Amino acid sequence: MTILQPSPFLGKKDTRTVGKGFQSVFLIIFTLLMTAGISARLVYLQIIEGSKFKQKAESNRVRVIPKQPERGNIFDRHGKLLASTRYPRSVYLWPMAHTKPSWSVVGPRLAAILDIPQADIEQKLAEAGANSSSLIRIARNLDEAQITAIKEYQNELTDVEIHTEAVRYYPHGKELAHVLGYTRELTAEQLKARKAEGYRLGDVIGQMGVEKAYEKLLRGEWGGQQVEVDGAGRPLRVLGEKQAKAGNDIHLTIDLDMQKAAEKALGDRNGTIIAIDPKNGAVLAMVSHPTFDPNIFSKQKLSQKDWESVQGEDHPLVNRALSAFPPASTFKIVTKTAGLESGKFAPNTILPTYGSLTIGGTRFGEWNHAGFGPLGFVGAMQWSSDTFFYQIGRGVGGPTLIEWTRKYGFGQRTGFEFVSEESRGLVPDEKWKQKAWKMPWTIGDTINMSIGQGALLTTPLQVAVMFAVPANGGYRVQPHLLKDNEEAKNWREPVKMKPTTIKLLREGLRKVVSDGTGKVLNQPTIPPVAGKSGTAEAWKRGVKQNHAWFGAYAPADKPEILIVAFAEHSGGGGGSVAAPMILQVMEDYFQRKYPGKYQKPAK
């Protein structure tokens, strides 16, 4: 009989089977976790971040070619063109160009053709960023030689493109420089400050004058093309296009013919001539010398000669019409008003005049060193007697004279559009003198101020506003250049004074021209004129070279034009230097407007 032996495995578990089961479970769990992780990542990438990555992918194959808007045209009051657009050709680069191996060839070649430092080109591209999808302008106003050279080397100059663009053009050049201003490519600081307004690298902006004041109206809106490109950046097809929106055209109050006449009258003298409508403040002409050609700023790079033309020691970019100077005897309008309105001097006041007066221990002279005998308010204006107005200033006192100075608008901006260019001038007072000189106000300060000297500073435009008060019957007006500026046209601030004061002001100003210091304007070639001269003491490089002033309006009984002429450091008097300039402008204006009425008498 055979005895069966028990199996050695009987009663024991098979560990190999258990191990295999555990591995299977672990693998399943691991797979599920990986699948869940991948799914979560796909959800994040496709749903949460999908639009972002889609945009990045699109930007790798879609390029935007921006289209600059055409800037609005500027016209004079009669529709004559003052500023427009021309269409030169410019060089553009893709921003990633300088990161490619080919840049070692492209960069030096392009810099040599354009005569621009390679570092300047690279800086512009770097500012845009290598991933920028917009073309960057490197140079404008290409000449034929440069265009030909770029075409000759087109196999080397990859990523270089030539496009036509809109560039500002001023057909009258220097004649309207300080009125129109100029446009220029944004500086890095300006771009940073205005990026939120839609400005971009290479954009141009109004930097001065009307171009700056009405930038928003003139600018327009950018357009452009969306272009699909291949891996090498070559365009394949246009995907879409947005038309650029041109800026608005604007019409100014400027009369181009009068502007040219004023430019001719001022000639090579440093100074300014301003013509306004005394009823509403519309500026008909505004010239300033020395001047400049605004077209030079449309170039990509200014030459040394260009820089010298705008950076001279006489500061050609400064608008003299908005700069401050002592107003001299033109200011006697204010002193006369203060005297009559204070109640301390009756309209029929007669005062003696002298060769000089000693007041507060200081001697104050008469301009003719002799005096004019007894004078009333009208005669004192006629002869511009200093000693007469010293007595008026002393009688009313500093506070009253200062009060009336401010009522005429001095010491504050006029409301003219060129806010950043217009000086407030200076009306000195006790507080100012204590702060500036650590000294109290004295009677001598009042005496000096009474004839428009001392620390008093006014702009020629403020002086024009002053003359408008007697011209229009007692109102300050707001000077302005935009023809459709209804708010400015209708702004009239009454300078409250008695009718007798206005009457005596107008009589005195008329007497200046008919029988006094402004007789050069008493001509049959223009209607009757009223006005006032001024000669301000001034020094230049240690030499006495006076400023010459004259302000006048016509016709004297019903004014339609008011002109202020100012000659800086002319060395002459207002009646002999500034008044003849006004005569030239008035002859041009009235003989054009009323042909045959005002003519030179036959010899």
From TrEMBL:
Keyword field: Carboxypeptidase, Cell inner membrane, Cell membrane, Cell shape, Cell wall biogenesis/degradation, Hydrolase, Membrane, Peptidoglycan synthesis, Protease, Transmembrane, Transmembrane helix
Penicillin-binding protein transpeptidase domain boundaries: 271-587
Molecular function GO labels: serine-type D-Ala-D-Ala carboxypeptidase activity
Subcellular location: Cell membrane; Membrane
Broad class of where this protein is predominantly found: membrane
Enzyme Commission designation: 3.4.16.4
Topology in the lipid bilayer: Single-pass membrane protein
Record-annotated membrane-spanning stretches: 21-44
InterPro entries: Beta-lactam/transpept, Beta-lactam/transpept-like, PBP_dimer, PBP_dimer_sf, PCN-bd_Tpept, Penicillin-binding_protein_2
SUPFAM superfamilies, A to Z: beta-lactamase/transpeptidase-like, Penicillin binding protein dimerisation domain
Keyword Protein biosynthesis set for record: no
Superkingdom classification of source: Bacteria
Record flagged with keyword Mitochondrion: no
Gene3D superfamilies: DD-peptidase/beta-lactamase superfamily, Penicillin-binding protein 2a (Domain 2), Penicillin-binding protein 2a, domain 3
Short name of one Pfam family: PBP_dimer
Enzyme class: hydrolase
All residue ranges annotated as the Penicillin-binding protein dimerisation domain in the record: 67-238
Similarity comment: Belongs to the transpeptidase family.
Protein name in the entry: Penicillin-binding protein 2
Primary gene name: mrdA
